Structure formats: structure tokens, C-alpha cells
């Protein structure tokens, strides 16, 4: 028993060193911009860079759009499948797993060939069209997480009874969906939303190959050309991830605290 | 079980609400359209393209074209890095998970490690490359501390962050947390009674682990290992921003091909993509199969 405890502490110390050291090193490096003393100059330089502001704003807008359209697609579908088409569930499970199986770079390669300016649906023919395609690609990337968190939340409510109750009170479908189902699966929707946010903000491959000025390609560009800004950006990115995932875990704990109904 | 109950209640409500079956399928039409347009059709386009020449006639030339030294080398280095980082991630992650579940450490350490794992498993891509450059790059903190305090020149030993070993070490930063997140529930599922039963029959700790616990955990461990492998195999952003396009792993080669047709044959690019799908697809398939096997013990 005693050796077990010592072993456990060694494992934890080893893990903690491996995980915390790069964070300390990154932070220390980001402070080195002024020669001979520590300063926050690198952060000032990042925050005043107009390209940073533009790409970050662009990615945030894309993240919000991805979340809104993703939720509008997934929640009604998951609801409908639970209510009417349970035989379709395995298909949903499989399809929503695909983005984890097919690498993002392969998916976007397919987009570029299928939706180029000389194809039937020329998404990449215009800037707005490319933005739209990028949003759909982000929706694809977030599909596994969004579907799973919504579906898990939907498992805790009795969709059939809620629907029948609302219908017998004369509610139209829109009211059922937006005033009964949505509020009840809100925790799942929010979990999905925050992980989508974290994915979209950091994504490099898709916006880079679609040539849109998102945060991911900006990070890469700075990394190739500057010395002290990249670690500052890494700290900022880590803070964003921490923020999104922290809220996500808080929400999932809240989710579990509620009694689950079959 | 859940599926059967769901089917029964749904079919009874179908008769209750008295709607036609056809309208049921209309409800999933938007999702189906989305999935076909942005997931299935692009993938199928590449897969079929891999078996065609530029004129659209069926051929196996593209697949054969993969077996050139340069492309084989990139698959080989990709496989090596993915295997090594998945193995390292699975090993360290397993011991970390074991430490928090069975090591008898305070519970706040467990929740701290689980929360951190959630964050770190999502901390990948370009920022991760920056973090490791700041740590183990030529002017990184650890490199400098080793040199100034211990008189140990890391780079004189042949170490290079922009190499197989460096990239593996970097990838493990998201691989270990992922292993911890997935394997912890499996370790939680090890019942105390199994250990007690083994001990009562005179088994040593070593015998308990090799004869009882590890065989039960084996599908979970192997499954997660394959998931980590696929995860590393498809990753590009970290490697690209660490090494630029000099390091020839498959995703970087495909990236260069998409950017500028460096292979001088678009259909060979499709074959390159097909190779990636086959490798990640196979490992995911075995992962799912292993998961189903593992769930037998998690009741």
C-alpha cells in the first residue's frame, strides 16, 4: 500500500512537471521582449496589432455563427430523431463520428475540389461564399461534440411526454421546439457551444486552405516572423481554451447533478 | 436497452399523434443534406478521384504512385511519430490515471488533473508549437537552465525540437490528457471485489494486475491507443508551425499538394488523402470495436 502511494505521487509529480514547465517557460519567454528586464511589451505589441484585432474578431464572429447555425441544425434533428425516428439514431451516431475519423485536411481538400469557382455550387467563387463554406466546415468539425452534448442533455428529459403535453395545450411545433425543448437542453447546448468556440478559435487548417484571415493562420504567420509575440499569443490562446473548457466542465458537472430520467 | 424502450414509446406516440411516416423522414432532411454536402460527398469525391486518371478513366496508377520513396518516407515518419506519441501518451496517461484513481491521493488532486486534462487535450495546434519552442527551443527556458545551471548543452547531444523526438514530445502534451480522460472511467470500473477475491485466493499485487486487471482493461487501453494514434496522424498545425514545410509528415505533404500541386498530379493527391482516411478509419474502427468489448465490464 505504501509503495503504491509513493508511486502515485511520483507519477503525479512527473506529470505536473511535464505539463506546467512549458507553461512557465512560455510565460517567461513572452516577458523577455525588453532586453535585460521582464516586461509585458510583447502583449502590448500583440494587442495593438491591427491584424490581431481583425483576425480575432473574424474568428469570434465565425465561432458565434457556427454555434448558432450548428445549434439550429442539431437540436431539432436530435429532438426529431428521439421523438420519431429512433431507427435513425445509429446513422446519426455514425455520421457525427465521421469528422473525428476523416482528418480535417482531407475534408477541406474535398471542399476545394467540389465547390471551386467552376463547379455546380461555387462557394469559393466569392468572399462571402468562402466565409459560408468555412462556417459549414467549422460546423462539420464541431459536429461530434455538439451532437453528443445535446443528445446527452436530451436523454435526461422525456421528449415524448413534453411534446404530448405541449401539443394537448395547443402549442404549434415552433413553440414546442423553442419554448419547451430548447430551454430543457440548454446545458447541453451550452457545453457544445463552448467546445465549438474553442475549436473554431484555434483552427488552422481550414481557414488557411480556404484563404480566410482567421486567428489560426494569423498565429502561424506571427510564429514564422516574430520572436516574442508567439509565446504571448500562446498564453492568450491557453487562457481562451481554459476559459471555454472550464465553463464546459462546470456545466457538465451541473448536468450530472440533476437526477437522470430514463 | 435504451434503444428498445425508445422504439416502443416512439411507435406508440406515432399512432397517438397519427402522422404519416413520410413526414418523419422530412424532419431529418436538413441534417442529411448537410452531412451529404459537407462530409460525405467531399470524401467520396476524393476516394473516387484516387482511382481515376486525369481523363476520368478508372486506374490503379495513383495508388501505385504512392509507393515512391518520397511518399513512402512521409507515411513512414508519420506512422512512427503517431505510434510513438500514442504509445508515450498512453503509457504516461495510464499511470497518471492510475495514480488519481487507485493511488490514494487527495480528491482535489484528482479534480485538478481532470480539469487540466480537459483543457490540455484541447490545447493543440499552433500555440502548442509556440509553447514548446519557448521551452525546448534553442533559447527556450529549459535549454537555458540546463546550460547555465547544469552546464549541460542539450543541443550538443543532437537533440532538436524539429525532429522525430521533438515532435513526439510535443504531441504528448495533448495525447497524455486525452488518455487520462478516456481511461479514468475504465479504471473507476475496476471493482473492489475483484481485487479482494484475487487476494483471498492468494494472488500477489503483480498477479492481480497481470491476470485480472490488465486483461479487463486491455480493450480500453488498446482502443484508446488507437484513438490517440489517429488523433496524431491527422494533426498538422503543430508540426507545420514547428517545422514549416520542411518536415515531411503526410498531412504536411498533403497541405503542400493542395496549396501548389507539388506532386504534379492532382489525382495522386487524392490517393494521398485516401491513404490517410484508410489509416485513421481503420484505427477508429478497431477503437469502436474495442470499446464495445470494454463496455461489457463497465456496468
TrEMBL record, chain A:
Keywords assigned by UniProt, alphabetized: Cell inner membrane, Cell membrane, Membrane, Transmembrane, Transmembrane helix, Transport
Keyword Transmembrane helix: yes
Compartments reported by the entry: Cell inner membrane; Cell membrane
Domain ABC transmembrane type-1: 56-251
Major location (coarse): membrane
Membrane-spanning segments: 7-27, 56-79, 91-112, 132-147, 176-201, 232-251
Bilayer disposition of the protein: Multi-pass membrane protein
Sequence similarity: Belongs to the binding-protein-dependent transport system permease family.
Protein name (database record): Putative spermidine/putrescine transport system permease protein
Species lineage: Bacteria, Pseudomonadati, Pseudomonadota, Alphaproteobacteria, Hyphomicrobiales
Amino acid at each position: 500500500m505504501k509503495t503504491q502511494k509513493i508511486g502515485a505521487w511520483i507519477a503525479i509529480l512527473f506529470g505536473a512537471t511535464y505539463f506546467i514547465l512549458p507553461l512557465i517557460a512560455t510565460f517567461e519567454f513572452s516577458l523577455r521582449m525588453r532586453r535585460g528586464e521582464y516586461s509585458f511589451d510583447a502583449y502590448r505589441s500583440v494587442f495593438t496589432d491591427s491584424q490581431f484585432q481583425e483576425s480575432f474578431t473574424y474568428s469570434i464572429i465565425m465561432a458565434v455563427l457556427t454555434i448558432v447555425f450548428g445549434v439550429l441544425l442539431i437540436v431539432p434533428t436530435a429532438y426529431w430523431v428521439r421523438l420519431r425516428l429512433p431507427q435513425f439514431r445509429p446513422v446519426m451516431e455514425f455520421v457525427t463520428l465521421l469528422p473525428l475519423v476523416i482528418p480535417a485536411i482531407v475534408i477541406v481538400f474535398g471542399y476545394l475540389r467540389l465547390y471551386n469557382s467552376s463547379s455546380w455550387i461555387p462557394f469559393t467563387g466569392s468572399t462571402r461564399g468562402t466565409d459560408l463554406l468555412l462556417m459549414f466546415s467549422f460546423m462539420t468539425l464541431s459536429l461530434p461534440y455538439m451532437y453528443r452534448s445535446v443528445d446527452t442533455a436530451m436523454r435526461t428529459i422525456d421528449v415524448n411526454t413534453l411534446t404530448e403535453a405541449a401539443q394537448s395545450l395547443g402549442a404549434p411545433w415552433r413553440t414546442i421546439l423553442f419554448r419547451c425543448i430548447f430551454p430543457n437542453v440548454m446545458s447541453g447546448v451550452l457545453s457544445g457551444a463552448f467546445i465549438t468556440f474553442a475549436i473554431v478559435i484555434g483552427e488552422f487548417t481550414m481557414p488557411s486552405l480556404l484563404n480566410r484571415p482567421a486567428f489560426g493562420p494569423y498565429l502561424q504567420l506571427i510564429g514564422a516572423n516574430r520572436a516574442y509575440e508567439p509565446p504571448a499569443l500562446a498564453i492568450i490562446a491557453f487562457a481562451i481554451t481554459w476559459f471555454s473548457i472550464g465553463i464546459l466542465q462546470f456545466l457538465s458537472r451541473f448536468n450530472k447533478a440533476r437526477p437522470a430520467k430514463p | 436497452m435504451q434503444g428498445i424502450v425508445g422504439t416502443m414509446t416512439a411507435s406508440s406516440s406515432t399512432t397517438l399523434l397519427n402522422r404519416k411516416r413520410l413526414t418523419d423522414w422530412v424532419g431529418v432532411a436538413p441534417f442529411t443534406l448537410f452531412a451529404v454536402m459537407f462530409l460525405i460527398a467531399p470524401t467520396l469525391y476524393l476516394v473516387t478521384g484516387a482511382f481515376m486518371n486525369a481523363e476520368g478513366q478508372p486506374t490503379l496508377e495513383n495508388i501505385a504512385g504512392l509507393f515512391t520513396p518520397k511518399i513512402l518516407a512521409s507515411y513512414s515518419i508519420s506512422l512512427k511519430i503517431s505510434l510513438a506519441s500514442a504509445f508515450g501518451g498512453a503509457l504516461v496517461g495510464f499511470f497518471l490515471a492510475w495514480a488519481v484513481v487507485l493511488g490514494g491521493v487527495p480528491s482535489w488532486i484528482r479534480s485538478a488533473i481532470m480539469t487540466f486534462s480537459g483543457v490540455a487535450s484541447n490545447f493543440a495546434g499552433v500555440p502548442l508549437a509556440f509553447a514548446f519552442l519557448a521551452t525546448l527551443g534553442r533559447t527556450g527556458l529549459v535549454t537555458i537552465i540546463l546550460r547555465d545551471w547544469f552546464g549541460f548543452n542539450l543541443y550538443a547531444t543532437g537533440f532538436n525540437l524539429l525532429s522525430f523526438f521533438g515532435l513526439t514530445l510535443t504531441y504528448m502534451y495533448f495525447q497524455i490528457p486525452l488518455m487520462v480522460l478516456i481511461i479514468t472511467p475504465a479504471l473507476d470500473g475496476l471493482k473492489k471485489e475483484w481485487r479482494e477475491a484475487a487476494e483471498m485466493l492468494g494472488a500477489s499485487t503483480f498477479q492481480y494486475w497481470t491476470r485480472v486487471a490488465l486483461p479487463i482493461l486491455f480493450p480500453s487501453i488498446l482502443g484508446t491507443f488507437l484513438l490517440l494514434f489517429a488523433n496524431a496522424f491527422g494533426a498538422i498545425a503543430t508540426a507545420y508551425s514547428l517545422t514549416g514545410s520542411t518536415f515531411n509528415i503526410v498531412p504536411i505533404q498533403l497541405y503542400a499538394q493542395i496549396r501548389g500541386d507539388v506532386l504534379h498530379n492532382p489525382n495522386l493527391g487524392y490517393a494521398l488523402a485516401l491513404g490517410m482516411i484508410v489509416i485513421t478509419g481503420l484505427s477508429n474502427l478497431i477503437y469502436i470495436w474495442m470499446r464495445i468489448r470494454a463496455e461489457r465490464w463497465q456496468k
